[in-house]
Design a protein that fits this description.
Oligomer: single chain
Order of helices and strands: HHHHHHHHEEHHHHH
Radius of gyration: 21 Å
Strand order of the largest sheet: 1-2
Number of helices: 13
Helix content: 40-55%
Distance between the termini: 46 Å
Strand content: under 5%
Length: about 280
């Protein structure tokens, strides 16, 4: 009921929020709390849910996202302080992966054949331009390529509504953009007659059937490729030189590369690149 009358955020955010709230109600019932209402909803329920999700093996990052939706709900029912802002009260602090844990994933062309043409090209956009899944589906090649040397991503395609540019560096990228234009023209990569949510779910299911796992790994591969281009050596995730062993000059080059890559991936902090590149 609350979500029907509050349309904050993008359609994807609204959908994720509704899904979280319905799941939370179901999980609270599973925990024996079947009489939770706007009148009595509060921090104890958020604590109960976070513990329940941790026991199910849900990652800290996902739990934090779910808590954000619960805070939105608390604010929507005029209880904005019901759930503390400090996530550390509910979950452990998010930690970065070690240099040994490299999630970079390259394209398996044989498996891509099992996807539709639009889905196939969407995954390639993730790999060759570092796009997120949502960005790769909403991508309109005619709109994005109005400038010769870069693609321009519209705010409505991007997480947080932050537009960004990604430079076109290689012939492979140019060929990919030409393929996108030939297939969809002045339209998005979403199948005709569908919408983003349905296209997202269809892509996830198609990838699952084709045994294409860890789509986010394509962004990792893009980031590591860019790091090597800019610095001239492999990233720490790939066995390259680590920060503590770098010279002063190498640290400057490393920092510059991370700033560039962070912007190209749509992040606002250089520190986030540790996830993709190691340290």
């Amino acid at each position: 009921h609350v979500t029907a009358h509050n349309k904050d955020g993008s359609y994807a955010t609204q959908s994720a929020r509704k899904e979280t709230l319905l799941m939370s109600a179901k999980d609270l019932t599973s925990c024996g709390y079947n009489k939770v209402s706007p009148k009595n909803f509060g921090a104890r329920h958020a604590t109960l849910l976070s513990n329940f999700w941790k026991e199910k093996g849900i990652s800290n990052a996902t739990i934090k996202n779910r808590l954000a939706h619960l805070r939105w709900y608390a604010s929507a029912i005029n209880k904005p302080t019901a759930i503390p802002r400090n996530n550390d009260l509910f979950v452990q602090r998010r930690t970065y992966t070690s240099n040994e844990n490299n999630k970079a994933k390259d394209l398996d062309l044989d498996k891509l054949d099992a996807l539709t043409d639009r889905q196939n090209l969407s995954l390639k956009l993730q790999r060759f331009f570092g796009l997120r899944r949502e960005e790769s589906l909403k991508f309109n090649p005619m709109v994005a390529t109005k400038k010769d040397n870069k693609i321009v991503l519209k705010a409505s395609w991007c997480k947080g509504g932050r537009t960004r540019d990604v430079i076109i560096r290689t012939q492979a990228q140019k060929d990919l953009l030409d393929q996108c234009k030939a297939l969809v023209g002045n339209n998005s990569m979403i199948e005709k007659g569908s919408n983003y949510i349905n296209a997202r779910d269809a892509l996830d299911k198609a990838c699952q059937r084709a045994e294409i796992k860890n789509m986010h790994g394509f962004r990792h591969a893009y980031a590591q490729e860019r790091y090597q281009e800019i610095t001239g050596h492999l990233s720490p995730k790939q066995g390259g030189i680590i920060s503590k062993d770098m010279s002063a000059e190498q640290k400057i080059i490393d920092s510059n590369a991370r700033l560039i890559i962070s912007k190209e991936l749509g992040h606002s902090r250089e520190e986030i690149t540790v996830i993709y590149l190691g340290k």
